[in-house]
Amino acid sequence: MLKSNDDKIKDLIKVVAEKRKSMGARPRISLKTNGVLRIGDSHSNLNIINDIPVLLDICSSLVRQKESFETAAQLLDVGNQFSCNGYSFSDWLDDFKARVTLIKWEEKKKELVKLENQLSNLVSEEAKTEMELEEIAEALIDL
């Protein structure tokens, strides 16, 4: 029975490794804005926010400000383009999307590392030795 569990664990470790490999390198984001959004008395630095609901809240504030601006511009019959802190709405939106993409990537990687650690703790000593020998053999082939 133990051998069967070890085989399942080794298969799952391979699945996790493939998923990590398919994720590729950490996405590099290049913001179009300076990343510091000032709306009213508050300011938010997109570079340090790691919580998607917080980003949603900040983005919704920006959307409300844009909608209010456009309504006022229409009421006053002026054709000004909305900008916030000198950047267009689309630039801010692109930065929010880029930040969300990065956060999702980091969350997925963290979950895969957690699963890999759980699986490694479950495997028997005999299977660990076998897996390490396989890794050494692969390393020697690649040299």
Description:
- The strands form two sheets. The chain has a two-stranded antiparallel ribbon.
- About 5% of the residues are buried.
- It contains four helices and four strands, in the order H-E-E-H-E-E-H-H.
- About 70% of the residues lie in helices and about 10% in strands.
- It has about 140 residues and is mainly α.
- It has one domain.
- The longest helix is centred in the C-terminal third of the chain and has 34 residues.
- A hairpin with a 2-residue loop joins strand 3 and strand 4.
Give a count of the beta strands, DSSP E runs of length 2 or more. Answer: 4
What overall geometry do the principal axes of the alpha carbons give?
elongated
- Helix content bin: 55-70%
Span between termini = 37 Å
Spatially, the strands of the biggest sheet line up as: 1-2
Biggest sheet layout: 2 strands, antiparallel
SS-derived structural category: mainly alpha
Tally of DSSP helical segments? 4
Q: Write down the secondary-structure element order.
A: HEEHEEHH
Extract low-pLDDT stretches.
none
